[in-house]
Amino acid sequence: MSNIKIAGEEIEILQCFPIIKQLRPHLTEQAFIKQVQRQRVKYGYTLCYLEDLGKLQCVAGFRISECLCDGKYLYVDDLVTDELQRSLGYGEKVFEWLVNYARVNGCNEIGLESGVQRFAAHRFYMKQRMRISSSVA
């Protein structure tokens, strides 16, 4: 049975590191913990993780913000499933959780950016009914 939780304690943040590192290989463990804690305080950055079969399978980092053009929105900074567990539905479960979290917190939409070279990620996001809305040069 899978379980999605918010990583609030330092030990939970640390447990997310091996999966986040697959998406953000430049990070070191100590820098990751400090940056997550700093971003939480300054920007409301939140890490959530899906645990199944006794281990973390998927991690997402997100924040809620607001702007004049879109109103309140949830922005996904990071979403990654363990590379050995992809295509098993874990990313979809976390994405669905994020949609519900946004809804409960009064957000009008969800946004994210994905590098143009990340074709598998784009297929995943399109399957989740995301649309490509703009690009920046």
UniProtKB/TrEMBL annotation:
Cross-referenced InterPro entries: Acyl_CoA_acyltransferase, GNAT_dom
Domain N-acetyltransferase: start-end pairs? 2-137
Listed Pfam families: Acetyltransf_1 (PF00583)
- Protein name stated in the entry: GNAT family N-acetyltransferase
Species this chain originates from: Anabaena lutea FACHB-196
Q: What lineage does the source organism belong to?
A: Bacteria, Bacillati, Cyanobacteriota, Cyanophyceae, Nostocales
